[in-house]
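Today's session is about reading a structure prediction critically. Students often jump straight to the picture, but the first step is always the sequence itself: look for stretches that repeat, for charged clusters, for runs of hydrophobic residues. Only then move on to the predicted structure, which in these notes is written as discrete structure tokens rather than atom positions. Here is the chain we will use throughout the hour.
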Amino acid sequence: MAGLEVRDVVVRYGGTTAVDGVSLAVAPGEVVALLGPSGCGKSSLLRAVAGLEPLARGTVAYEGADLAGVPVHRRRFGLMFQDGQLFPHRDVGRNVAYGLETQPLSRAERDARVTELLTLVGLAGYERRAVPTLSGGEQQRVALARALAPRPRLLLLDEPLSALDRQLRERLANEVRAALVETGTTAVFVTHDHAEAAVVADRVAVMDRGRLLQVAAPDELRSAPASDRVAEFLGLRG
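Below is the predicted structure for this chain, in token form.
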């Protein structure tokens, strides 16, 4: 299978094992959520896939090619984090265009791509808006547009909605899902919120204490949890 393949990955920080022998495959165009409580290893696994954390053991491959030794900027993966990490000195349009500036595109082609993506995330006409004037939800929409702009092979999203209030998170989860499906983007989405994971993902990978407990479609996960720990985390058991 093409796409992302994680095989027996271990990530350690000193004497602490954060990711303990995880294997996971993500098909082209699929969205998989890494779900679990704080400290379960989901963000460490995401960072290992991105190349931001070294592997103590195992392999990360994409389209059949082992990524060992491939630096972050050469993996052609997009990254989106909780705070969005927008450039406050750039307006919205120039933030979205940032990843396009090293590509062989004309100014007209860059502008067209920016317009396309701002429309996709519900911010048509925001090109000249200053980032500090935007709400938290608007900033995360801009961050999503920026991450999608270079057409990444894989988009890695680390708790991108966790800083927002519940109502806004629910709305944006649907919008993130729609944007990923519309663009056919392969993605891994880290969250501690099982309702959010069910909205965004085709499959959900439940983690706890560095291990992968179950990988299944959201409906299957709720109807047939693989263990008491999975059921407890999903709120299906007291």
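Discussion point for the tutorial: The first strand starts at residue 4 and ends at 13.
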